[in-house]
Amino acid sequence: MNNPPRNLWRSAGAILLAFVVVVPLSLGTDQLFHVLDVYPPWGEPMWEFGDNLLALSYRIVYGVFGSYLTARFAPRHPMKHAIIGGAIGFVMAALGAAAAINMEMGPAWYPILLALTALPCAWLGGTLHRIWRADDE
Asked: How buried is residue 111: exposed, middle or buried, by Cβ count under 10 Å (0-12/13-18/19+)?
C-alpha cells in the first residue's frame, strides 16, 4: 500500500483550519444576532432557553462543518484528524463551560452541551467526508 509520508505541518494545518473557520463563523453569527436584538447586548447574561438553543444549534452545524474540513484536508487518516480536532474542541469547550458557569452568564446546560457535542460533531464531520469522498470515486 502506498501511503503518503507523514506530514505533521499538514496535519496541524488541517486541524487548525477548522478552528480558523468555526470560531469566526460562530462569533460572526453571534454578532449578527446581537445586532438584530435576538440576543441581549454583549456582556449581559443570556438566560432565554430559545436563545441558547439557537446558539447551540448553529455551533453544532459549524462544528460538523469544521470537522468535515479537517478530514477533507488531512494528509491521511481523515477520521483520526477530525476526532483529534473534536477532542481539542471538547477540552476548550469544557474549560469555557467551567468559566461560564462560574460567571453565571446563562444556564449551565448550554456550555455543558457545547462540550458534550464536540466529539459527536467531529465524528459526524469525519463520516460525512468519508461518505462524500466515496461518492466521488
From this structure: buried
